[in-house]
Amino acid sequence: MMHGAVPHALEHQERERLLRMLSAATFIIFFQAYMVAPIIPSLSSAFGTSVQTAGLVVPAYLIPYGIATLIFGLLADRLGVQRVMFASLAAFAVLTALTASATTIAQITLWRVVTGLGASGVVPLALVLVGKLFPYEQRGRPLGWLFGAMAGGMAFGSPLGVMLVPFIGWRGLFLMVGVAGGVVLLLFLPYRRMIAAAMQPVGGTFGELFRGYANLLGTPRGQRTYAYVLVNSMFHSGVFTWLGVYLERRYGLGPVGIGLALLGYGIPGLLFGPLIGRAADKWGRARLLPIGLGLSTLGAAALLWDFPLILAPIVAMVLSLGYDMTQPLFAGIVTSLGGKRPGQAMGLNVFALFVGFGLGSLIFGEMLRFGFGAALGTFAAVELMAALFALRLFRSERRASAKG
Fold first, then answer.
1. Is 77:202 a contact under the CB 8 Å cutoff?
2. Of 98, 122, 233, 269, which residue is the least packed, with the fewest Cβ within 10 Å?
3. Statement: 13-203+213-393 belongs to CATH 1.20.1250.20
4. Tell me: the pLDDT tens digits for 211-221?
5. What is the mean pLDDT of the chain?
6. Cα–Cα distances in angstroms (integers) from residue 353 to residues 64, 164, 349, 374, in the given order
7. DSSP letter string over 279-291?
8. Where are the chain's structural domains?
């Protein structure tokens, strides 16, 4: 028994080390994604354009990112996850660094589009690998690590990015993150064989691939899960993208002040992501999802009031906790929907997530023509309705079970 236990223990250690590397890659990608929104006022000033025009750099990255995940998911199923993931991580590092060469707002927007297209094969495939490496009833904790890494990227990317701009400039910021992405890629290389062994390529015709998407969206469970991923991501991105502009206009904050005010965002997921995952495994998602959606509503509603500036990190923390108690749980459901094509299932999930991010920032920006009150009130009302409907729609997700 002891002889058999040693290989098992080594396999467990290797799996845990790979999970940490997947979390590191996820962290740096989300750091890069979330460092941009708070520096919208700085970009507007640097390029002499309006904040609405500068704000387009956010959806310019997020929407192509979401669309490309569908392609990367299919490529991973056909070519192997390790090849696609490593190529995407390399593209992320190179293109992020090249963004520093932009000399106009149009050029930086174009670089963001190309980076979104190239970088979108890492996070969804990391989620797929978790689905392959861990059984469904144990997936909450590793998914909590990945979404905790996302939250950590948000937590550090949001304030640290905007706080570094006065010292190294926005160009230095992109160069720094590009180099960090290259370092993560080099650290990832020893795990390529383990990744290849965890998920073998799946063949098939394009007709079968399209039928796979039809099957994913053909069940009530799939429909409600993907719909909630989309709507919830629209809410969070819409509010967060313009939070820096909100703080600048309402409290007159500069870059460092905005960074300090956003310190609470991402911290709950960074600290409690795995615990939230374990709670989902133990008690089921039916209880936690409405609470998370309700907390999101509360965070947005708080922005409608003239609260003391010292409470801004707490409001950001409530918004972040609402995200951490919803999107990771939806991803857990998605990992049980894919069957033989997990890349497709998770690709569709990240497609809905990032397209929602892009649409949310666009719609909120357009609603700012009527003021922050109208935009925040509308987004909070939609999220509140989602919370109430979730009580019924997700009541079957009472405990972790192997659902097809």
1. yes
2. 98
3. yes
4. 777 888 888 99
5. 84
6. 12, 28, 6, 24
7. HHHHH-HHHHHHH
8. 13-203+213-393
